[in-house]
DNA sequence: TCTGGGGTCCTAGGACCC
DNA sequence: TCTGGGGTCCTAGGACCC
């Protein structure tokens, strides 16, 4: 805990949904749910309008559909658009200080004490946050964020959560415990459902209750590391530094299927495809790893992992795939699998095979698909389109997919800088309709 | 039509080594 | 030769986060 409120936490509000509402004017002010739109999808983000009907992150999309009224937009994610917007925000944070720790695409800590601004008084950081929020909204086309500032990561994060959305809370140094102690323990990072239930059983509901427990009690209850952590957080003791660069510890790829799969050849082909993507990502980041992990989720949702550590690190898709296939053969797949994941951990900087790797196109071969899989059947025309997708029509211009089915696709033709636009239903195989790029939300100043 | 996908960190037991 | 102790690696699972 520092003597000044010099740690800032930013949390963008309902971020995915906010980007969708920016780019799709007809959705502004209306309920929007972003996430998996298939039968086994879950909600990634619900707009505040959708939250009013009870839609929540991590809820199954089926449940959100039950709760939300007709006309609610259920969209798959457009991660390229989110990433671009996030980069604009992170760049603004780096103007405050070089020490910026992104936690996720929509969240970051900033160490203001490492920045050029010297006024770390409560008034000073409040004014800084006010300007930051205005800059973010202006640069992103209206995406808002909640800012918390305090004497530690703990307090900054708690503060940003106190007044969502579009909030600004500074916890003055010295008042940490006044803010912390009345809160439910579940507001502390690291207290999830399991820990909350155990704490409840010993009469702990608030952070003040937690602070009354002895270190020994908490270690017994939650384990050595976690118990010690809880003991300190309850006292606002938090010395965790803001860390700009964190090295990746693992790279993985997983997929839940629309229906449970039982066919070994099909499962092996999926392993190959996932291994190919993992290998590609490893090589993109110049990493290789020694431990290959296969994750399986069975028909009954029980989850297991099987791993094997190789003698040498690898970034080779074939080696990852071969290892994962063997792990699957040993683990079995009786009853059917709903999910498979392939991952590599134990990472190091340099790929062992790099010096000798040919740069011929091994990837298709490595995936196994070109070698032994029958050619994937061309998906039906309407399967090319998914809700929320950016498209462009040769005559009608840019727009986005509202829905699809029965050989048709419904598109709304509008963009971030247009008024709400018209809806047209087209043949799914309309040759004039193409996948599009995320639209630019910034008004063009030069002729583009 | 229950329950995504990408991660991190911790624990615990057994193997193995000194 | 009847019983040690510590350290590291590997594997599996669980809790948690966004």
From TrEMBL:
Subcellular compartments: Cytoplasm
GO cellular component, one term: cytosol
GO molecular function: damaged DNA binding; DNA-directed DNA polymerase activity; magnesium ion binding
Cofactor list: Mg(2+)
Source organism superkingdom: Bacteria
Keyword flag Membrane: no
Keywords: Cytoplasm, DNA damage, DNA repair, DNA replication, DNA-binding, DNA-directed DNA polymerase, Magnesium, Metal-binding, Mutator protein, Nucleotidyltransferase, Transferase
Name of the top EC class for this enzyme: transferase
Catalytic reactions of this protein: DNA(n) + a 2'-deoxyribonucleoside 5'-triphosphate = DNA(n+1) + diphosphate
Known EC number: 2.7.7.7
Marked site positions, Substrate discrimination: 16
NAD in keyword set: no
Active site: 107
Family the entry assigns: Belongs to the DNA polymerase type-Y family.
PANTHER family given in the database record: DNA POLYMERASE KAPPA, DNA REPAIR POLYMERASE UMUC / TRANSFERASE FAMILY MEMBER
Subunit details: Monomer.
Protein name: DNA polymerase IV
Upper lineage: Bacteria, Bacillati, Actinomycetota, Actinomycetes, Geodermatophilales
Gene: dinB
């Amino acid at each position: 805990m520092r003597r000044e409120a010099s740690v800032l936490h930013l949390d963008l509000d309902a971020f995915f949904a906010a980007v969708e509402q920016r780019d799709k004017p007809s959705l502004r002010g209306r309920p929007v749910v972003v996430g998996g739109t298939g039968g086994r999808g879950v909600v990634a983000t619900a707009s505040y309008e959708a939250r009013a009907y009870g839609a929540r992150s991590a809820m199954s999309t089926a449940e959100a559909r039950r709760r939300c009224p007709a006309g609610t937009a259920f969209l798959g994610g457009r991660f390229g658009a989110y990433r671009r917007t996030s980069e604009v925000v992170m760049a603004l944070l780096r103007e405050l200080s070089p020490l910026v720790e992104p936690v996720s695409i929509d969240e970051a800590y900033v160490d203001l004490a490492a920045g050029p601004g010297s006024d770390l008084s409560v008034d000073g950081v409040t004014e800084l946050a006010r300007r930051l929020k205005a800059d973010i909204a202006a640069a992103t086309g209206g995406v808002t964020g909640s800012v918390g500032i305090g004497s530690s990561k703990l307090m900054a994060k708690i503060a940003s959560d106190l007044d969502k959305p579009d909030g600004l809370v500074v916890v003055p140094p010295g008042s940490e415990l006044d803010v912390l102690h009345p809160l439910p323990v579940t507001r502390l990072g690291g207290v999830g459902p399991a820990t909350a239930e155990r704490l409840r059983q010993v009469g702990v509901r608030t952070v003040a209750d937690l602070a009354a427990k002895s270190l020994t009690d908490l270690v017994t209850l939650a384990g050595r590391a976690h118990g010690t952590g809880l003991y300190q957080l309850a006292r606002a003791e938090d010395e965790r530094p803001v860390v700009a660069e964190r090295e990746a510890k693992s790279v993985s790829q997983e997929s839940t299927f629309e229906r449970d799969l039982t066919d070994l050849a099909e499962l092996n082909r999926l392993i190959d495809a996932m291994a190919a993507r993992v290998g590609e990502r490893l090589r993109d980041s110049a990493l290789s790893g020694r431990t290959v992990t296969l994750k399986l989720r069975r028909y009954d949702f029980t989850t297991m992992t099987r791993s094997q550590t190789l003698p040498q690190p690898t970034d080779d898709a074939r080696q990852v795939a071969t290892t994962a296939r063997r792990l699957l053969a040993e683990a079995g797949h009786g009853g059917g699998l709903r999910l498979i994941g392939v991952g590599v951990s134990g990472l190091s900087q340099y790929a062992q095979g790099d010096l000798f790797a040919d740069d011929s196109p091994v990837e298709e071969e490595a995936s196994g698909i070109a070698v032994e899989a029958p050619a994937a059947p061309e998906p039906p025309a309407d399967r090319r389109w998914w809700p929320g997708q950016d498209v462009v029509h040769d005559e009608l211009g840019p727009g986005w997919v509202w829905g699809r089915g029965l050989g048709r696709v419904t598109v709304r033709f509008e963009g971030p800088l247009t008024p709400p636009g018209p809806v047209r239903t087209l043949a799914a195989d309309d040759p004039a309709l193409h996948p599009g790029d995320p639209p630019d939300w910034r008004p063009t100043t030069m002729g583009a």
